[in-house]
Amino acid sequence: MREIKGIAASDGVAIAPAFRLIEPDLSFETKTVTDVDGELNRLHTAFDDSKSELEIIKQKAKENLGDDEAEVFEAHITILSDPEMIKQIETEITEKSENAEAALKSVTDGYIQIFQGMDDNEYMQQRATDVADITKRVMSHLLGVVLPDPALINREVVIVAHDLTPSDTAQFDRKYVKGIVSDLGGRTSHSAIMSRTLEIPAVVGTETATELIAEDTNVIVSGLTGEVIIDPTEDQINDFSTKQAEYLQNKAEWKKLKTEPTTSADGVHPILAANIGTPKDLPGVLENGAEGVGLYRTEFLYMDSTELPSEDDQFEAYREVVEGMQGKPVVIRTMDIGGDKELPYLPLPEEMNPFLGYRAIRISLDQTEIFRTQLRALLRASNYGQLWIMFPMIATLDEFRRAKSVYSEEREKMIKAGQPVGDIKLGIMIEIPASAVLADKFAKEVDFMSIGTNDLIQYSMAADRGNERVSYLYQPYNPAILRLVKRVVDTCHAEGKIACMCGEMAGDQIAVPILLGMGLDEFSMSATSILKTRSLIKRLSAEKMQSLAQRAVTEADTNEEVKEMVEETLKELN
Predict the structure, then answer these.
(1) 492 catalytic, yes or no?
(2) Does the model's pTM come out above 0.70?
(3) Does the annotation mark 502 as catalytic?
(4) Which of 44, 162, 190, 493 is catalytic?
(5) I need a surface site. Which of 398, 473, 507, 551 has the fewest CB within 10 A?
(6) Going from the N-terminus, what domains does the chain have, and what CATH number goes with each?
(7) Long-range contacts: 122-125, Cβ < 8 Å, 24+?
(8) Three-state secondary structure call for residue 138
(9) Grouped pLDDT means (10 residues each) for the chain, 574 residues
C-alpha cells in the first residue's frame, strides 16, 4: 500500500484497476528477413487488426461525440485500405528483404514528408497527422505492444496518465472509466473541467502517479480529498466504499432539488447557472436544474472546425442553446482564441507570453470581419430566447466601447434590413486585475459583469495555472482575490447592474458562503456542481454570511486563514 496526494479535481470516489494511458515504446531494429512471405503475413495481419480497432473506435466516437468527430477515424480506415501504400510497403519487404517495421516506417515517412511540405494546403497538412497516427497503430501490432486507447476500454478502470487532453477525456465511457489520476493539471485545467462534466472522480497534479502506479494495480481515487491509494488494504477498500456510498446517497438527495429554485435559508435567491462548451452539453445543464447558462464558450465551435465557422453554422449552434433553455438567460462569450487555444487555420504570431498577448477581444477588434460574423449570428439567435453577449479579456474602457460600437453597427444594419433582433444585454468578463480595479467605471456602461476567476487568479498572482511549480499560488481564497471580487460586486450593485461569476470558484464549496455574503447575483459553474451548491445555499443565511465575507476580506491574512474561517462556519451548521 502506498498513498500519494494531488488536487481534488472532480468529486466522488473510485476503486478499480489502473489503466495506464501512456505512449508505449515503439522503437525497433531494422533486420534482414529470410521468410518474406511470413513478413508479408505479419504486415497484413497488423493492418487488418488496426482496421478492426478503428471500426470500434469510430463507433464509440459516433455514440459519444457525434458523426463529425467520428469522420477522422473513417479517414484513418481509408488510409489503411489504400492499395498503393500497401503495395509500396510490400515492395520494400520483398525487394530489400526488410522486416515489416522498417518497410512500414520507410514508406509512411515518405508520405508524411510530402504532405508536410504542402505548407499552403491545410487539408494535406492534416493528412500528414493522419498517416503518423495510423503508422503508430500498425507499428504497435507489429511489435506486439498495446497502444492504450480510451475508446477501446471495456472494463472498469482508473485512468492513470501524465496529462490528459480534452480529446482524451471526451472519449471516456463513464460506464467503464471510474476515476482519473494524472501527474499534471489543476482544478481549472480543461481535462479537470471535462471530468466534472462527465462526473468522473479525478485527482490531478500528483506529479508521480505514472511512476508509482503499474498497469492493473488496484487504485482508490478520492476526488473529495485528493487522495490516491495504490494497492489498498481490505480495510481501506471497505472504508472508501463507505465514503463512496455516502457520496452517492448525497447525490441522490441533491437530485431532489432539480426543480427547486435556489433560495438561501433567509430567502435570498441567487441564480445558479452552468458553463458549457457546445450544444451537446445542454442535456446535462437541464438534468442538473440550471437556472441559466452563465458561460457558453464559443471557441470550441472554432476549434472543432477546419475553417472559420460560417454565420449560419454559428447561428444554429447559438439558437439551439438559447431555444433549449426555454427563456432562461444564456450568456454567450465571444471568441476567446489565443493563449492555449490555437486554430491551425488562423495563424497567430509567435509570442513569448501568449496568455498575455494577442488573444480574445484583442483578435476580435483587430480582425473585425471574424468578429462581425459572430455578432450577426448572435443577433439572429437572440430572437429565440434570452441572450446576453459577453466580451472576454477586456482590459480598458476603450476596448469595451470599441466592441460595443461594432456590435451596435451590426445591430443597426439588421434592423434596417427588416430582420428582427431580441433584447440583448452586453457585458464583460472581469479576468484582468486592471478591469477589476476600474470596475466602478465599467459598471456605468455595461449591463452586467462576470468574474472569470480562473484567469483573474493567475494574472493577479502572476502564476500560470498550468505550471505545477507555481500551483501553490493558485489561491482562490486569498484576501487579495476576495477584495477584487468584492469590489466588482459592490460597484455593480451601486449602479444597479448584475454581478456574476463564471470561473470554477463559483462552484467551490469553500468560496460559495463568502460569495453569497458578498451578494453575488449569479454563480455559474460546471453543471454537475449545481445541485450540490444549491443544497449548500439552502442551509446558509445570506445575512449571516455577510459578516463571514467581511472578516475574510478585512481580517484574514492568507488563503488558509480564509479556508479555516469558512470551515468553522460550516461546522456550526451541522
Answers:
(1) no
(2) yes
(3) yes
(4) 190
(5) 398
(6) 2-22+150-252 (3.50.30.10), 36-143 (1.10.274.10), 264-573 (3.20.20.60)
(7) 122/306, 122/307, 122/344, 122/345, 123/306, 125/344
(8) helix
(9) 90 95 88 93 94 85 66 84 92 93 93 72 66 90 86 90 73 89 81 80 92 95 95 95 94 94 96 93 94 94 84 97 97 88 76 88 96 98 97 98 98 96 97 98 98 94 81 92 98 98 92 98 94 97 97 97 96 80
